[in-house]
Structure formats: C-alpha cells, structure tokens
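Structural prep section.
Before we set up the soaks we want a predicted structure of the protein with zinc ion in place, mainly to decide which crystallisation condition to try first. Input record follows.
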Amino acid sequence: MAQPRTRQQPDDGNPRGLHFLTDLANTVHEDPDASAADLQALLELHGGPAFRLTDADARELCEATAPVIAILGADDPDTAAEAINALLDRYPARPRLVRLPGRPWSLHTRAPADAGPTHWLLSTAALALGLWLSERGTCAWGRCAAPGCGRFFIDTGRRTPQRYCTPRCATRVRVATHRANRAAD
Ligand SMILES: [Zn+2]
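Run finished without errors. Recording the tokens verbatim:
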C-alpha cells in the first residue's frame, strides 16, 4: 500500500517557514516535475505569497529547490552555513516583521516587486534556514531514516536528535524491529 502523503502542520511562524521548505523539498524530491497546481497548493497551505504560477514558474521553482534540498541534506553546520551565505549573497532577503491575523509577529522576507518566485523562494529559504541554524547551532533538520522513506524534516526536539520524519515512520520501524526480533527468537 502506498504511504499516504503527510504534510507537517502549516507554518505557525515557529519554526519560521521551515515546514514549508521541507514540504517543498519533499514534493520536488518525489516529483522533479511537480505541476504548477501542486506548488500553488503548497504555497497556499503555508500562507505563501499569492503567485499565480505558470508552468514555466513551476519548472523554475522546482529547479530553485535544488540548493534548499542540498542544505537540508547537510549535517555539518559549516557546510550548511557556507551554502546559506551563498544564497544570502545571491538572493538578499529584505526581512520585515509581519503580524498575520491571530498570530504573533514573525519575520518574513519581502522580495523586490519585480522578483519572481525563485528570488522569493531562495531569499525566504536562506533567511529561515540561517535563523534556525544560528538559533540551534546545529543542522537541526534531516532525512527520515525509515527504510523507503527518506523525507526531509525539521528537528524541533531539544534532546536526542530526531531520526524519523513522523511518529508514523518511527512506529513502522519499531514494529518491524520488534517482528524481526521475535522471528529471530
Ligand atoms: Zn519517514
């Protein structure tokens, strides 16, 4: 049975926009030709800007996701910081505190008026990942260790590093290990 697609909860400003980035990375990783409709739905789910994405925009966004995927795949903070700095140089973020209805103030980026989705995405990603890296001091993200999964996640835990994308994957691995141990008895 195919695993149902699960999405992390829409971003509540904490951690800032990061769940959008992992959702986007997972979507593009699973389908490098994700459609404009898919990406549009993802933006809307996470309260992103109301781009009306064309097919050309969708292709551009899928390509622009590559550096985000590379950073989310890094587990060395020095490597990640260099990659984030390269994005900050190339796609400068213009941070602004914004208060969405019913939410606390949170830092958003405002791309130049004529900037397309790529500039918006990569300036947003660089700021969000940079803030998260500086706050946690480590690459507090990763890829799910469950066999056949490999989805990216944001590690919001404070103690042991997270290994699985969701409790569902953790349970799946625990049950499989338990069965294997019983079979070996
Ligand atoms: Zn998983």
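Observations: Confidence is low (pLDDT under 50) at residues 1-14.
Flagged for discussion at group meeting.
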